[in-house]
Description:
CATH architecture: 2-Layer Sandwich
Oligomer: single chain
CATH topology: Nucleotidyltransferase, domain 5
Strand content: 15-25%
Amino acid sequence: MSCILGIDPGKSGAVCVLDNSDNEVSLHFWPLGDFDFWHFHEMIKDYRPKHIFIEKAQSMPKQGIASTFSYGMNFGKIIGWIEATEIPFTMITPREWTKELHRGIVGVDPKAKSAEAVQRLFPVLDMNKIAKTKPIRSGMIDALLIAEYGRRIFK
């Protein structure tokens, strides 16, 4: 399988494995600070992605010092694990992937625009059934769109 990994490293982050040739989607979720290296290692062995795209870490407005530090530590661990796999990776800003994938979608709420983008791109995917809670669903949606952005770069 030739696939792309998209990673949203946020508090309700997720890993999305997106096949390069069709719309086969596999979503994996982990909570902040609980990323399981061995699960990630097994996923890398199973899917053998040709490239990994990860959203670049940045501090958020009104985010506390402790949560910013925790987010940065988690991001650093993920980057270290990715580097250990020796798979090429690209860090992208939210602005980069949303500019491409939110094109033509009206509204101001970026989370709603991302949900709309997933509905348009993957109409058979029911994110409400996959993830019951809004934060988890949001992380999975972002990871999927990050992977889709990466897939478009390689096409």
